[in-house]
């Protein structure tokens, strides 16, 4: 009787199963977006897992940028088993402008004039973490020829539609001159 030998090669041809985190939306830090060191983004990037049928748990890599720009960025998570099989999955980080602009009055929030004085609004400045060049709209008017209390209201929204907290300036027109006899 002859002995016959058969070689059987068992190969792992299945890639690890990569489970991505749930997609997230985060607030923009500035016009560039948000750094991947942000706590929410760091948790997102560290939440992906990979499991291989032969090798068990595998480390997961990703292609996340250092800074996530405004809008949606798809992140690909990948894991490779000891046989060289690579599995992938994707999730999205969406960066949005969630911060309202801030209006700062130039000069005081309360101004006193004498009847007949010329009033010129000192204006305001607007700052926002993403939008630039914003200018507050002013509503209201002042009649410096009539005694009274007048209110100017300043408001603005950034390009994402986030409204600023309304700011007001009070202008008191008074008759402080004694009559001429």
Structure description:
The mean pLDDT is 95. The strands form five sheets. A four-stranded mixed sheet has the order 2-9-8-6, covered by helices on one side. Strands 11-15-14-13 form a four-stranded mixed sheet, with no helix packed on it. It has one helix at 39-46, and strands spanning 17-19, 24-27, 34-35, 49-52, 56-57, 61-62, 67-68, 71-80, 86-96, 102-105, 110-114, 124-127, 137-139, 148-155, 167-174. The chain contains one helix and 15 strands. The longest helix is centred in the N-terminal third of the chain and has 8 residues, at 39-46. With 181 residues, it is mainly beta. Strand 4 (49-52) and strand 5 form a beta hairpin.
Secondary-structure blueprint:
Blueprint: E1 17-19, E2 24-27, E3 34-35, H1 39-46, E4 49-52, E5 56-57, E6 61-62, E7 67-68, E8 71-80, E9 86-96, E10 102-105, E11 110-114, E12 124-127, E13 137-139, E14 148-155, E15 167-174
Parallel strand pairs: 2-9, 11-15
Antiparallel strand pairs: 1-4, 3-7, 4-5, 6-8, 8-9, 10-12, 13-14, 14-15
Main features:
four-stranded mixed β-sheet; 181 residues; mainly beta
